[in-house]
Amino acid sequence: MSTTFVYTVLINDKVQLPCDIQPPTMDDQIVLVLWYKDDELAPILTLDVRKIHGRPAHLSIDPVAASDEGDYRCRVDFRKARTINTVISLKVIIPPQVPKITDQDGNYLTGLVGPYNEGDELTLTCLTKGGKPRPSLIWWRDYAIIDDSFEFDDRDVTTNELVIQRLSRHHLLAILMCQAINSNLTSTITTSSSSSSSSTTAISSSSSSSSSSTATATSTIQTSNSITLDLNLKPIEIRITQLTPILVAGNDALFECNTFGSRPMPIIYWLFDGNRYDTRIHDPPQMELKLGAPSLSLDSIQEGIDIYFDCHIDSNPLPTTPITWLFNGEPLQPEP
């Protein structure tokens, strides 16, 4: 008479493997409880039945190692009834390594990457190593799957190559996540018995002549890595506005050029008769000296009063050197 279970557990976690030690009849008693692993002839654990008070016996493993995977058999001998064997197949799940993301040149990427140019093609490769069972490797963008194709190689490496043929504005600051998932982690527990009466305390109870029960628990083991795309964007629109209402030959005319939607700020220049005029060409600063107080005038200045001067500078860009004050050609030094 035997009972079979399948347990799935994550590596480094802990697990308790149950054993049915309930005597088939009330007037029977347990004689011996032995635990075996795989095909080993010698038991790995022997329980003193005097320390068991009618409760299910458990084999505890903490923490679980990869080498703990295998088939465990709990043998229970009674004084009158036949021996009961509980067989547990323990499956150990090993998560894959954290995925790594590389560009087409093999450079590892993390965090904010780029900037890439709008309209360019972008090739990203995600790879992870290990994992038992072998993982699925999936590309996500903002919680939506965009590529679930992946492949394995003989080095236990899983890869998924993502190709964006043409970067567009909607890719700006898009979060691309590569996720490695151990699939098929459904743990199915099956109990079967051919005795006239059976009771499995840890899993199920049945009174039929032949019984089976199945309990299913699903767990998903996943690791992920993500990047955020930075892009250089082209202007959406270029607009030229004539600021001088009427154009008159020989007079100055003012035009304004505006661009919209570019990232970063663009360099604007003008073309006229095949010549380029860069808007960053600097004109000499235009300066004007004024009295700092509106109530003062040059006619009202008297000896002994304080006078304030303001220096107004019209310059694009602003001066990069300190402003110097001169009096009769000699530099003025600020008072301490």
From TrEMBL:
Residues 12-85, 99-204, 294-336 form the Ig-like domain. It comes from the Eukaryota. It holds the Pfam family ig. Coiled coil: none annotated. Residues 189-217 are annotated as: Disordered. PANTHER family: OBSCURIN, SIDESTEP PROTEIN. This is Synaptogenesis protein syg-2-like. It comes from Dermatophagoides pteronyssinus (European house dust mite). The gene is LOC113797546.
